Amino acid sequence: MKKSTFSPAKIAGVLKEFAGGRSAEELARENGISTATLYKWRQKYNGMEASELKRVKELEEENARLKRMYANLAMELDVARYIIEKKL
To answer: Which residues cross the membrane (predicted)?
Structure first.
């Protein structure tokens, strides 16, 4: 998964400016992001403070790590079952 170059505090700051009435194009150009990214952030994180946003990002990273662990364990289980069936 790609690591964001923006900290939760920076994202929250950009969203507050956007909510304050600044145009999406102006903010996007100023921060080096696309307008689609800005609208996606607003859809996902609207109304959150920086600390809440940081916690959400940490939970998303942990969830991705746990999904990878589960996929690896499921694959190992399939291989073990295949080996056991082959020996019988």
So the answer is: none
